[in-house]
Amino acid sequence: MQLDFFPSRTLTIYLAKMFVVRILAVLVMLVLVLLALDLLSATGKILAAPGNGQAEILQYAGLRLPQLVSRFLPYSVLLATLITLVTLNQNSEVVAMKAAGLSAHQVLSPLLLTAALVSLGSFAFNERVVTRANATLKAWESADYGPIPPAQTGGVRSSIYLTDGDNILTAATLTGTGESIVLTGVTWYARAPGGIIREQIRSARATYAGPGWRLENPVKFDVAGAITERPPAAVVGETLTPDRIMLQSIDPDAQSFWELSHSIDTYAAAGRNTDEMRAKWWHRLSGPLSALLMPLLGSIAAFGLARSGQLFVRAIIGMALGFAYFVVDNAALAMGSFGGYPPLLAAWAPFVLFLLLGETVLIRTEE
């Protein structure tokens, strides 16, 4: 058995090129199908906003495309791994490589190298493109696909939910920073002890009144008397300072890796719970690396005689291992987000577990 991990430059390029073509083909197929299905459900909502037309539908597709690419790239690597290895096995190319003295790891090495490059590209794509698309799309959805408030220094944040004792303040979007914060689509819920809503106040826009937030042209509804009023102005949430609002309105999915690091430090300094943010911070690293696992988990489809009738079973086992990883990874991340697991364990335990599982299966069956 040769000791060089990449024993042949020609073979490495041949396998890597075959793998890359299949990754791209599977990714394009998955993204186009899922984007078409997503547009079927979202087009009616987009066109319901006054003035929207084909341009807005294309804009929505452009914002959803990076999200779909990021989410389904690891699945594409898994399916491409199975297609590539099954093809090599059926054509007896794996038999020829092993007859030439290559080990199972050497056969997989070009695929592992390609998957590592895909992981690196996925991390860069997530940081530069996906986070911005997430922020823009969430703000647009919060505005019911209408005009998004112009981004100020702090950008646009969406789906704001704040508590002021028993009371609740919600807003569709937030723009600006400090005392220049502007909230749109605002609703104030005044609640009695025990959580019973006493009154509800709606307003299209709110600004900082120092203290409190001034609601413009509010509409007040008294629950007990079922009476609707239109007072000239209203100030609510006097304990909600701009700094507190900025802390509570952070969206980890819309922040880059380094921005999220700063947000975690800010939360920790304020004495806030950071488990959910730390779990997502660690997953920014372990998530893209899932592509590196796919050739290893799908490698069982490469070996064994194609004429034995077990090739299809091997491919199913490889697919099951790959999809089991995604299920365990999502479950661990959810557990880490609400404190069930430590954030580091929630993000990395599935990766390490399936790395060891894939190596064990490969070594015991082929090495």
UniProtKB/TrEMBL annotation:
<dbReference type="InterPro" id="IPR005495">
    <property type="entry name" value="LptG/LptF_permease"/>
</dbReference>
<feature type="transmembrane region" description="Helical">
    <location>
        <begin position="72"/>
        <end position="88"/>
    </location>
</feature>
<dbReference type="GO" id="GO:0055085">
    <property type="term" value="P:transmembrane transport"/>
</dbReference>
<feature type="transmembrane region" description="Helical">
    <location>
        <begin position="340"/>
        <end position="363"/>
    </location>
</feature>
<dbReference type="GO" id="GO:0015920">
    <property type="term" value="P:lipopolysaccharide transport"/>
</dbReference>
<dbReference type="InterPro" id="IPR030923">
    <property type="entry name" value="LptG"/>
</dbReference>
<dbReference type="GO" id="GO:0043190">
    <property type="term" value="C:ATP-binding cassette (ABC) transporter complex"/>
</dbReference>
<keyword id="KW-1003">Cell membrane</keyword>
<keyword id="KW-0812">Transmembrane</keyword>
<feature type="transmembrane region" description="Helical">
    <location>
        <begin position="108"/>
        <end position="125"/>
    </location>
</feature>
<keyword id="KW-0472">Membrane</keyword>
<feature type="transmembrane region" description="Helical">
    <location>
        <begin position="12"/>
        <end position="37"/>
    </location>
</feature>
<dbReference type="Pfam" id="PF03739">
    <property type="entry name" value="LptF_LptG"/>
</dbReference>
<protein>
    <submittedName>
        <fullName>LPS export ABC transporter permease LptG</fullName>
    </submittedName>
</protein>
<keyword id="KW-1133">Transmembrane helix</keyword>
<feature type="transmembrane region" description="Helical">
    <location>
        <begin position="311"/>
        <end position="328"/>
    </location>
</feature>
<feature type="transmembrane region" description="Helical">
    <location>
        <begin position="285"/>
        <end position="305"/>
    </location>
</feature>
